[in-house]
Amino acid sequence: MLVVLSITLMVVDARFTLLKPFRSQMGLVLMPSYLVTDLPQRLWQGVASQFGSRTELAAENEKLKTEALLLQGRLQKLAALTEQNVRLRELLNSSALVNEKVEVAELIGVDPNPFTHRILINKGERDGVVLGQPVLDARGLMGQVVELMPYTARVLLLTDTTHSIPVQVNRNGLRAIASGTGNPERLELRHVADTADIKEGDLLVSSGLGQRFPAGYPVATVKEVIHDSGQPFAIVRAIPTAALNRSRYLLLVFTDSRSPEQRASDAAIAQEEADRQGLPGAASATVPATAPALVPSAAVPSPAVAVPAVPAPAAPAATPGAPVISRERH
Amino acid sequence: MVSTRNSNGWVVWLSFAIGMLLSVSPMPAFAEVFRPMWLALLLAFWTLALPHRVGMTTAFVLGLAEDVLYGTLLGQNALVLTLITFLVLSLQQRLRMFPMWQQSLVILVIFGIAQLIQLWLSALTGNRLPTLALIWSAVISALLWPWISYGLRGLRRRLSIN
User: Which residues cross the membrane (chain B) (predicted)?
Assistant: First the structure.
């Protein structure tokens, strides 16, 4: 009887979301056991930091200061580059990059099963974590959230055998899919043509094509490319840039909460707005028919709706892209 | 269920709680394969010692707890633990008479079967590499059985748990 019950439970859990609340409530009760088993390690770290020698601390402080200086130097450049990127994107009329927010989470446990690569973090549903949320460490992408509990969440790492992530070669934009192998130091690129331009040392970044991970985060560096004439595809092995089995502090990325469809429609509306603004004479014939229907449903605030009236007199003389830029700078 | 107040039943549950902690305690990566099946060992002992107290329902509930801890499908470990308890219960009368090394062998076989079913279930749900390394934890558990058994028996006598 219990066997039937457990089989039913398994099927229900696999196919439907009915049991999720029950699961997360049980998780609330049971997850502290990971914290308890983690206690000795924590205590040890606390003791070690208590008795850390002064010279060591001074050295670390020095190192961190230099690092901060370097990073700040890079950040100055980044601001200018971001600005430039936004302007270039405006010129190309492509949708703007989304600014992502991050939050720090701490690792509290590792999955006891040696054949899966999953970890537990100390942020959960109550902290605003959502299913499928990307997780980073200081060096690159680590994985995504697969299970939510009230105060904890389970993260599937990139190297799990069931995980794949769309990537592209940073050097030339070549797209591929990186699959986990079950080895924490190894990813494999599937179905890469034998003649593809990919070589050892290439940086692979997330391409954002799966609409799960944000684009542009480093994922792995290519370790070896094996061309075997007996195989239809090249064998490409890569090492994840993130320290998947060593990082203790992780970053949760909060991306745009809108769905891709919503984002696309918002982008389309913004585009239309820009077009109308740029070519009031040409667009006025077609736009007014659709505009009343579109504008109320869009998330565009009312000042933005009022904008087209202002630059209209200057617009016919200018190029279509120009008013957009001037508006962005304010 | 015997409802005597002074039967020290809490020790059984305390041992299960400790077993649960042990089953998620961090271990070096190479040793993960050899992690003993703590909950199954404890269940086997208590079903042998106190069959009127610990039975299939206990196993089922503990299995559900383990599922939540491990993040497997709800019911997977419950099924495996229930099966182990069923096998132990059905062999109970004979198993109690066996010398320790024979008990260990029987435990090895039972846990081996359970791990095979575990392997099969996880292959069905597409979660793991189908490898026979899972059997190692059954072997380690069987090797640990005499110690668990003697230790808990001493505890049981001293605290007169029944």
Answer: 12-31, 68-91, 103-121, 133-152
